[in-house]
Design goal:
217 residues, 2 domains, 2 helices, 10 strands, globular
């Protein structure tokens, strides 16, 4: 073999080695870039679904309070607001009435309010945490009594329930919540249900639709 042939062969071998190194490098980069896929969210059972529905209801109450009560003078309250989702879309209304006062020393609002939801649609913004996602329509009369924290010196302590039956003094089966909860979305429907929950700080617990229910806010 001539020296020219030897040189050509050596160059060819070097090119193949560099080509192989480049391909391996590309595969390494692609492999590293892909990374492990995130684990899918666990299934959302009935307790999980009720918890997300309660979160949706509590969020709707908070928005109605902020929109219709917190911006008004203390004392008697009576106003109706549209139900507005995170993206600005509207659906239904909520009538808020009752009484709200302020305890400046404690840094809290003292409330005895009723929220009359009429086909009130509220959708939460997309959230990477599965149980923070919902799109719900709420119909029914819900009461809220207790303390709402305004300053860190106070703790929210509320009783939230459907309106009481005059004869039994028990919460009536008057609340309906339907739509989707969780991510991926799960169809949800609770019709003509009684609600009786307590909020202590960021914890919400009690009963909804004859089942134990709760969530963290």
């Amino acid at each position: 073999m001539s020296s020219k042939q030897n040189r050509t062969t050596a160059l060819g071998a070097g090119w193949l080695r560099s080509r192989g190194w480049l391909m391996c490098s590309l595969f390494a980069v692609v492999g590293c870039g892909a990374g492990p896929r995130p684990a899918p969210a666990p299934p959302c059972d009935q307790s999980c679904q009720d918890g997300v529905a309660l979160l949706g209801l509590r969020t709707a109450l908070k928005l109605a309070y902020n929109f219709e009560v917190s911006t008004k003078p203390v004392g008697a309250q009576d106003g109706t607001a549209p139900c507005v989702s995170f993206d600005g879309s509207q659906g239904g209304t909520v009538h808020v009435f009752g009484d709200a006062t302020v305890n400046a020393v404690q840094g809290a609002s003292i409330v005895s309010l009723s929220y009359d939801f009429k086909n009130c649609l509220y959708s939460a913004p997309p959230d990477p945490t599965a149980d923070q996602n919902f799109s719900l329509t709420i119909t029914g009369l819900v009461t809220e009594t207790g303390t709402i924290s305004v300053q860190p010196t106070a703790t929210t302590a509320l009783s939230i329930q459907t309106v009481l039956d005059d004869s039994t003094m028990l919460p009536t089966d008057s609340l309906s919540i339907s739509g989707t909860v969780y991510d991926p979305p799960v169809d949800y429907a609770a019709s003509s249900c009684a609600l009786s929950v307590i909020q202590d700080g960021n914890a919400l617990s009690g009963a909804f639709c004859g089942r134990s229910a709760g969530t963290s806010l």
